[in-house]
Amino acid sequence: MVIGIDIGSTTTKVAAIMPDKEIIRIKTRAIDAITSATGAFGKLIVENHFSLDSIKKINITGVGAARITDNLFGIKTNRVGEMTAIGTGGKYLAKKDRIIISNIGTGTAIIEVDGSKINHLGGTGVGGGTIIGLSKIMLGTTDFDTIMQYASKGSINNVDLLIGDIADTNISFLDKEFTASNFGKMLDIAGKEDLAMGIFNLTYQVIAMVSVFAAKSKNNDTVVVTGKGSNNPIGQNILKRVSRVHKINFEFPADAEYATAIGAALSV
């Protein structure tokens, strides 16, 4: 068995690749990288009744991997570059050899996979951290479930300036319901629900457009969305709307949240 550990800024994810290629997934949260990594590893071992001698090696990645300089629990521990892990995991989940990956975590990384080549194209600081930070100031909460509940009841029409607000017809290929300016309207009646929806719209539209430009620059029509922000239903709807307009296909594979941990396990 090989174990991949993705030690993020807020969450650590573990993927165990079994001899029969079954993948077992675990995630935990902790204050520091070492506590998070060892806690997630211990949870995997205890809950699945694994023995330490059944583990061939551990591959670690993510922003917290640098904090771990020795082998974990006496097991050979390798360090895998995060972009390599994202590309490897995204390719495995998508089952395609040529894709663009948009990995949504605290920020967003954009990766190109072309056969065996993995290329980090760049990204944006806009991501899950943006949602939490803006919500703290604008909504008075950092609880993600609460933010989601607000947004599910919100109206973007009370917050964003739409093309239909400034033009009588569509502009180029953009219809009247498309955003002209995020938070460009801000009606006095806008409540927390509307603000929450505005935060999601801003975040995922930025991610969508960065992904679209990356895909088009590489003559690719597929963006595979991975990372914690990949399974957000509100975010997915925003990405799909941009997808239809720009003719770029956004895909959301199963287990996309664990892509980096899976990629780490499959590396080296």
Secondary-structure map:
Blueprint: E1 2-7, E2 11-17, E3 23-29, H1 33-48, E4 57-61, E5 77-79, H2 82-94, E6 98-104, E7 108-114, E8 117-124, H3 128-138, H4 144-152, E9 161-162, H5 163-166, E10 179-181, H6 192-217, E11 222-226, H7 233-246, E12 249-251, H8 259-266
Parallel strand pairs: 1-4, 4-5, 6-11, 11-12
Antiparallel strand pairs: 1-2, 2-3, 6-7, 7-8, 9-10
Helix pairs in contact: 2-8, 3-6, 4-6, 6-7
Strand order of the largest sheet: 3-2-1-4-5
Helix content: 25-40%
Radius of gyration from CA coordinates: 20 Å
CATH homologous superfamily title of the largest domain: ATPase, nucleotide binding domain
Helix-strand pattern:
EEEHEEHEEEHHEHEHEHEH
The tally of beta strands, per DSSP, is 12
Rounded average pLDDT: 93
Number of domains: 2
Strand content: 15-25%
CATH fold descriptor of the largest domain: Nucleotidyltransferase, domain 5
Low-confidence stretches: none
Q: Gap between N and C termini, in Å? A: 14 Å
